[in-house]
Prior knowledge:
With 413 residues, the chain is α/β, with parallel strands linked by helices. The chain has 7 helices and 17 strands. The protein has one domain: Metallo-dependent phosphatases (Purple Acid Phosphatase, chain A, domain 2, 4-Layer Sandwich), CATH 3.60.21.
Amino acid sequence: MTTPAASSSKRRDLQDLRDLPRAPALSYLQKQVEPRAPRRKVIDLRPSRYPLIAAFTPQRLWNWISQYLRYRFRPRHAFQVYAKDSADNGVYSLQGDAGEIRIALAGDWATGTDEAHTISELIKAFKPHYTIHLGDVYYVGDPNEVDENFLGKRNPDNEYSPCLWPKGSKGAFALVGNHEMYALGGSAYFDRMLPTLGLIEGGLSQGQKASFFCLENEFWRIIALDTGYNSVGLPLLEYIFWPDCALPAELVSWLGELFKRDDDRRGIVLLSHHQYFSRFDKWYPKPALQLARFIAAPVLWFWGHEHRMAIYKEFGVEGAVKAYGRCIGHGGMPVDLPPDAPPHPECPLEFVDRRHYKNDENLQIGINGFVQMTLRDDVLRAEYLDVYGTVVCSEDWTTKDGVLSRLAIKFSV
């Protein structure tokens, strides 16, 4: 089976993003080690065992410190909300054709790798009405990285080919992850990315006004949450007081308006960057606790942040929303293989992709992918495709009186 990387020689190497820390200072450090152009792939290529050591040359060390101080020690960008006097309140009617609505979801995609490019081509082949990125532009979401890895514009600082996030025929959206917040307080996300997104009217993007929104019809509500804005704290102190990714107060107020009617019986799908729970990684239950005042029935919840594909049974912490968790943070980053002894065995896992990805960098990693979602009246189909275009899993859900029930699930690997 041919790897996506074998068809291109101008995109970012996976090894430079491997084990990227979820911490601003170390993300800036790892960024310094990347070469200006992709490596020549040879059959005996062996990635460095200790890549960060190369960052401690005088020039790279200075670049690391100066970039961190210049980009990180800034106040966060103002949290954007929907203007009260505007017709745009962030709630949009889902539109499709031929009796169906197609939505593509991918998390942690904006890496500039061959795998990310291949995923974008597979998304375009799906001909979606809407595309939604679940967050994280690497390494630190600065203006050049946003241009190169999301907006498809060449970065003058290197020789890599840029990647463009594909748009649906009706619209394209993006959540904010922790990495977008590492540089300039998220300014490149709010000021460069969002104006290029949103609904498409007359062939033109109308702009995404805020980092949260709702797409809905008479059967479904797809609600995108912002867990990224509060995923960073004060520089350096955030390593002691780890942020809880709480939903901002303005977003909670917006949810209050969204759920003002207590007789709404539509099925709810949630989207976020950070995971509510995980068998393999840290938990961020605060948003689920905040949502409990609005949502009573279990929800279908897609998230990224973890670089793997995993499907969970219904689960939740006490006092919080219950969810069928779906981890899809495998859009473009090197995919983490599941450990033999996971730290949270109490999480009821239904499936995790354990396959090894045959790559030309000789890395021991998993396989990238994304989700194709199709709505046909009260039936939602989610298909989990890998970077080869194989449907790894498909599941059908229906909703009645606001209660989700799964009609079928099928695994092909």
